[in-house]
């Protein structure tokens, strides 16, 4: 291993999955690479740089969360609707998604944790949240470090 490869390996990102899950977990990039990979082309507008077009490859957020086993049962359709997923990036950017957005019985949106962008690996930066269909790029976030599943208990 060269010095450059060793430095890159020491910076390889991890992502923690916590909250209302049976198996809180920490996924190294290698763990995410071991999951089924999906490819998505996205186009969105960024306020700073205008229109953006990228191709991402990575696992579905749903597949990662299923490994952590959310506390609700798969047969509890309506119960799943009250859960949210909050994601935090290394730069403290935060995004909240409704579980229903990724659930195959509801929104069925193929949201990815991108491991490559335009063919370039993101191992040292961490996974990139990829939300196909968003017009604005604000939910396409680099360097996801923390994911939490929790019930929206506000009344």
From TrEMBL:
Could you name the domain of life of the organism this protein comes from?
Bacteria
SUPFAM superfamilies per the record?
Oxidoreductase molybdopterin-binding domain
The transmembrane residues are none
Q: Which Pfam families match?
A: Oxidored_molyb (PF00174)
User: Where in this chain does the record put each Oxidoreductase molybdopterin-binding domain?
Assistant: 12-85
UniProt name for this protein? Molybdopterin-dependent oxidoreductase
Q: Which organism is it from?
A: Actinospica durhamensis
């Amino acid at each position: 291993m060269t010095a450059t490869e060793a430095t890159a390996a020491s910076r390889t990102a991890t992502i923690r999955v916590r909250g209302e899950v049976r198996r809180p977990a920490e996924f190294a990039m290698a763990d995410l690479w071991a999951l089924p990979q999906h490819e998505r082309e996205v186009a969105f507008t960024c306020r700073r740089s205008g229109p953006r077009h990228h191709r991402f490859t990575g696992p579905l957020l749903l597949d990662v969360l299923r490994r952590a086993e959310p506390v609700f049962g798969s047969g509890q359709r309506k119960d799943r609707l009250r859960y949210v997923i909050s994601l935090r990036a290394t730069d403290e950017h935060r995004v909240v998604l409704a579980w229903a957005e990724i659930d195959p019985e509801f929104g069925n949106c193929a949201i990815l944790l991108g491991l490559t962008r335009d063919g370039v690996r993101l191992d040292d930066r961490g996974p990139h949240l990829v939300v196909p269909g968003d017009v604005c790029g604000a939910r396409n976030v680099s360097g996801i470090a923390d994911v939490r599943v929790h019930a929206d208990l506000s009344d």
